[in-house]
Design a protein that fits this description.
Helix content is about 25%, strand content about 30%. The chain is an alpha/beta fold and about 375 residues long. It folds into 2 domains: about 5-280, Rossmann fold (3-Layer(aba) Sandwich), CATH 3.40.50.1820; about 295-370, Immunoglobulin-like (Sandwich), CATH 2.60.40.3080. The chain starts with a helix and ends with a strand.
Length: about 375
Amino acid sequence: MKLAFTFLFIIVVYVNPLFAQLDSIYDQSVYRTFIVHLPSGYSANKQYPIVLNLHGLVSNATIQQTITQFDNIADSKGFIVVYPNGNGVLNKWETIGNSDVDFLSNLVDTIRSNYSANNCLFVTGFSQGGFMTYKFANNTTHNINAIAVGSGNMSDLVKSQSQSAPKIPIMHFHGTADNTVPYMGSPPTISPVDSTIQWWVKHNKCNPSTSFTAIPNSNLIDSSNVEKYYYSGGENGSEVTFYKVLNGGHTWSGSTSPSPLGFTNKDINQSTIIGEFFHSFCAVSNGLSEDKNNNSFKVFPNPFSNQLTISNLKNEKITLILYDNLSNQILKERFNRSKTISTDHLPSGYYFYEIWNSKKQIATGKVIKN
């Protein structure tokens, strides 16, 4: 990987408008710092999922906060998002050994002690933070609900040590013109990105047949476009989703921060997609998730093929809204009895739904089309 000069340039180029206060914990004989963002409307009467958001090499928590703009996602989805700092002169993550696995595990314990958090834990990371995301997910004693990696990879050493790792849903974004964490890998220690995706497909025991989607090229001046590969049917509800950014650089798709490291794709918003992905596996307790499991409504079958049925046991007037994985609303239906909707026109992949009555949102969930 091209490291120091490239990432030092990032620090100069990314002008951070946020002056967030750093918190710290004493871990392994040193103070480790981090930023916590609580969702808007945070209440001790509710319990929120935690998202760890890990920066790249020679970057830091505030830069990661700026690049990803994940505070906005946390506000809309109800996440406690934590931006930890790496360690040492390069502010790096230790992916050899478990010192940073232990730090992040202790940090999660601290957040759960100090804030109103539920048992859901998600991790996302950029560049070396992506490497650390894979390392942490495969080695922590905490249960992780899902992870999302941007422009990172998984070393062959970590793969060889992770055969008994948990089977979890993963999402990966990578540009084919990334010269910092090359798409074709860095032999002999890091295999191509495609190999890492296939490692996870096999590890999670997903269906090896992919569902392919060409994302519409809605921005004609970003010099890149996106292909999506989705592998369903993994054990323990796991799945693998890969966004391949053709001609994309070492960047975070949808970011408004300038980058000297190649083209930033604008057809997708990486943070929005990750937020929807995480939200589909866990929501706010004693708030949204109480309604999420509302037994008065059933959406089935799941997975579905050419039709989807909404069972409305109360026979009340409700509205069903269906979104694709890019958060685009693709369907809105109002009815007051059970209803079956034709889905022949929908491409394969996963979808998110909301059910509303006249006053509030009463159910949410995720369904998959084969």
